[in-house]
Design a protein that fits this description.
This protein is of the alpha+beta class. It is built from three helices and nine strands, in the order H-E-E-E-E-E-E-E-E-E-H-H. Strands 1, 2, 3, 4, 5, 6, 7, 8 and 9 form a nine-stranded antiparallel sheet that branches. A hairpin with a 4-residue loop joins strand 5 and strand 6. The longest helix is centred in the N-terminal third of the chain and has 18 residues.
């Protein structure tokens, strides 16, 4: 029988390969496993650390456009010339005539039935109200001769006065704004007109203090303005 002899080199190679296979298949002890890779950071000492402050997000900066302009000039809300209304309504009930000699100062009596409306001749503010008839025939004090009366300061700069009223309209008081045609009172015969034909004593004057009854009763002749307002013409009073 033939005998096979393995050359020494082949035997050594076979033995070395078998050892490698066993080394690969044999479990490695836990103590010999490589530690996982860890990231470390070196911090400065506490005393030199910069405090952390959270930053609040802000909107992106935008350029600011600065505009300069000259204010526009707007027309006044008050129409020019101002609107005027005849002081007694309905105007068809009124009678008046030219001439101021009977008063001794510029003013006109507009005759109308008791209860006819005395209205604001233009936009303005109530300046004076006499809601009590304090005139006494024995004393005949000139400041009280008008009886119940109302005066307004018009937006046109003039004061308009009406007296001898039988009633003052509700809500009419000093400082109240009124519009042209707004009711101020009712025609009557209060004051020293108590025994005369009912009428409205109407006067136009400069604005002075509220107690200035001398100026308030009339300073310019109302006649041409009453005629214009009766015809629907907006005529502003002026000194002659």
């Amino acid at each position: 029988m033939a005998t096979w002899r393995v050359p020494p080199f082949i035997a050594f190679l076979t033995f070395w390969l078998a050892g490698c296979v066993i080394a690969v298949l044999e479990p490695t002890p836990e103590s010999t496993l490589a530690a996982p890779l860890a990231l470390t950071a070196t911090l400065p000492p506490k005393s030199t650390r910069t405090p952390f402050h959270p930053v609040t997000p802000t909107a992106p900066r935008r350029s600011t456009l600065i505009l300069t302009f000259t204010p526009a000039v707007f027309p006044s809300l008050t129409p020019y010339p101002p609107k005027y209304v005849f002081p007694v309504q309905p105007a068809s009930l009124a009678r008046f005539a030219e001439g101021v000699e009977s008063h001794g100062y510029p003013a006109i009596d507009i005759f109308a039935p008791v209860g006819a409306k005395f209205v604001a001749v233009t936009n303005g503010v109530v300046e004076f109200v006499s809601d009590e008839d304090r005139w006494q025939p024995e004393s005949d004090h000139p400041a009280y001769r008008g009886g119940l009366a109302v005066a307004i300061l018009g937006e046109d700069g003039w004061r308009y006065y009406g007296s001898h009223l039988s009633a003052i309209a509700e809500g009419i008081a000093p400082g109240v704004s009124v519009d042209a045609g707004q009711l101020l009172g009712e025609v009557g015969n209060s004051g020293n007109a108590y025994n005369k034909t009912p009428h409205l004593h109407f006067g136009i004057s400069r604005p002075t203090y509220a107690g200035d009854w001398v100026t308030r009763r009339g300073e310019i002749d109302p006649f041409p303005y009453l005629l214009a307002w009766l015809d629907g013409v907006d005529l502003t009073p002026k000194f002659p």
